[in-house]
Write a structure and sequence with these properties.
14 helices, 12 strands, three-stranded antiparallel β-sheet, homodimer, Aspartate Aminotransferase, domain 1
């Protein structure tokens, strides 16, 4: 009747969004304080500096200049601020002329994949992976190839090597990782870069590395290495959703490394893909805001504290979980073979967890701990009761 | 190398955006007051009520609630406000559960076309037409079919009938029209509806009417009829870019008429298409704003005055042009056969006009008069000098 793929995507919804809708309905029903919603990454770390600056921008800028169309890749001042931050703080290559502002991380992904992939070409991701990767790769007419990870979710390069083919156009990595919290080390990434370099040479065409970095600033041990420093054919995808708690405002960017082969042509394709998918420009007011806060973050103490508290309390109870190195997720072992059945049982205790099948692996549940501290504290008796049910 | 279609779309750019970039560069070079930029519809009618309300929303709402993800189709309060406005002010059918907020008109178009079209299905538009229609139809894997208009750009229904086939899934209309300023009469639209009804019956499948209405409130004679009142299988695409001068903020909606055949399935497809194209939600702050201003407009007096002044002055000089009934465009006859050559010549006088070839017809130039009054006044000697060059 209508487009079948879209109809299915719409009727099924993402499991995460489905839980998000359920959580909102359930909170309205029994009270927000009684629902322990660990479902979606809706960040709540305070960024008090933003509201004042938004008001200042609204007061200082003539509305017709403020709210008008910007250039499609974004305001030059925003592109300069981003490239400047990458060079100064991350020590990486960047060129404002190769920076393209987007309506958030999902748009960054949809646009770069549409720009890069020709029909039937492949993009490799490591499992577990953010489920919308598949949606965006398939929207671009490409094929998602899933590579395994080793214990504790490290990239399995031997397995990856066996999956690379002349059709591989890109490898997409996400470190700090959603859903596992893994942060790839410089050694792991250098080995990945060497493999891609070797295979690119062998196939006579570059394999691009797409670095999805919405959690760049969220690390609890070593700082995540900046990938364009290690591999020249890298495109960075960023969003301020997590770092500035602006998830609903849809503001992020694509930075094509100036060291990429055919960087300008790739950037042209990014502009073309943005146009084709209906992105005229990123929201203008928030372009101005991030021009002033390109490298700043909200106060991330909350996530640090939630991580420490939840990890300690849950492992002490008896849950199994690798200590997260970054992002704001715990990826705990399911207490029964089916993660979906486990999460369904958790729901009875008003604990909203995302089953790992949606991330391409079985046996785990994802907790998003970017929540108020009270949710963490309130949830602990429920986690204990849930565990008790399995020990009966 | 990369996706060829995207590469071409990005390298070529839209003629309108190209002129917009040229205008900005030229203004920086010789001074903004010396460039008469009639290229893009970057609206500047004042909407003083907005800035105060934005500040109020920023002050009153806790930031984590304000800037967080909303439900994918939008905040319920915004969807209710929109459906309420459609019912009360436009007298048309609407259901908040079938309203989907978008990142502006381009997103509304890209999403509904991706939702509706299966590969190879056809969407008909009337020439001249907004050039991005082709981009969005082709992005959806569909085929754009161009129907002619009669004198003064009225829909040519006899010609349309000859172009409808069992592959026709949609007819896309835009009234008030970009670029001609035509507003279709109730009689014309009833005849169109009757034709689509007849052909839908003949083919055994509905032909949907897509009504692209970013200029809904911009009319200078009769009010544009609200299409879902005349044809049940109508989907309305709206944006506040023009009515509230918010073009850069990317906020609009899709309203699937509850009288549509398979309305819920179509709405599911809309949600799926939004997901697939990378639209997570419309910008949250502006969702809240439009909840409070669903049916309001900026002070549109400026456009009324610019229209009267430009139309009178240009036709008095000797330019030929139909009096625009709506939107904020004059579509003047080119003074030589090639509209591109004419617009290139106009550029020498710092007059930035869009040649009509980009709209699928030859022989005209589009002036966007949503500009400060000073631009209109300043441009008149330049228009006179341009005409003089042809009369030498």
């Amino acid at each position: 009747m209508f487009n079948k793929r879209m109809q299915t995507l719409g009727a099924e919804r993402s499991v995460i969004r489905e839980l998000f809708e359920y959580a909102n309905a359930r909170k309205a029903e029994i009270g927000a304080d009684k629902v322990f919603d660990f479902s979606i990454g809706n960040p709540c770390a305070p960024a008090p500096q933003l509201e004042g600056e938004l008001i200042r921008i609204l007061r200082e800028t003539p509305p017709s200049a403020l709210h008008g169309y910007t250039s499609a890749p974004g305001l030059w001042e925003a592109r300069q601020a981003i490239a400047g931050h990458i060079r100064a703080a991350l020590g990486g290559p960047a060129d404002p002329a190769l920076v393209y502002l987007t309506c958030g991380a999902a748009a960054s992904l949809a646009v770069i994949l549409a720009a890069l992939l020709q029909r039937g070409e492949e993009c490799v991701v490591f499992a577990p992976y953010f489920p919308e990767y598949r949606v965006f790769v398939e929207n671009a007419g490409g094929k998602l190839v899933v590579a395994p990870t080793t214990e504790r979710f490290r990239p399995d390069l031997a397995a990856l090597e066996g999956l690379l083919t002349p059709k591989t156009r890109a490898v997409l990595v996400n470190s700090p990782n959603n859903p596992t919290g893994a942060v790839y080390t410089e050694g792991e990434l250098r080995a990945l870069a060497a493999l891609l370099q070797k295979k690119s040479g062998q196939y006579g065409a570059p394999i691009y590395l797409l670095s999805d970095e919405p959690y760049r600033e969220l690390f609890y041990g070593q700082r995540p290495p900046y990938l364009p420093r290690l591999y020249k054919n890298t495109v960075v995808l960023y969003s301020w959703s997590k770092s500035l708690s602006l998830a609903g405002e849809r503001i992020g960017y694509i930075s094509v490394s100036p060291e990429c082969e055919n960087a300008q042509t790739l950037f042209d394709s990014v502009c073309g893909a943005g146009r084709s998918l209906g992105y005229v420009c990123a929201p203008a007011l928030f372009q101005r805001l991030v021009s002033r806060f390109a490298g700043e973050t909200a106060d991330l103490t909350l996530y640090r504290e939630n991580r420490a508290r939840l990890y300690a309390a849950l492992t002490q109870m008896g849950y199994e979980c690798a200590p997260p190195e970054g992002a704001f997720y715990l990826f705990i072992k399911s207490l029964e073979p089916s993660a979906s059945a486990f999460c369904a049982r958790a729901k009875k205790y008003e604990l909203l967890l995302v089953p790992s099948e949606s991330f391409g692996v079985g046996g785990y549940a994802r907790l998003s701990y970017c929540v108020p501290r009270a949710v963490v504290e309130g949830s602990l008796p429920a986690f204990s009761a849930l565990l008790g049910e399995y020990r009966k």
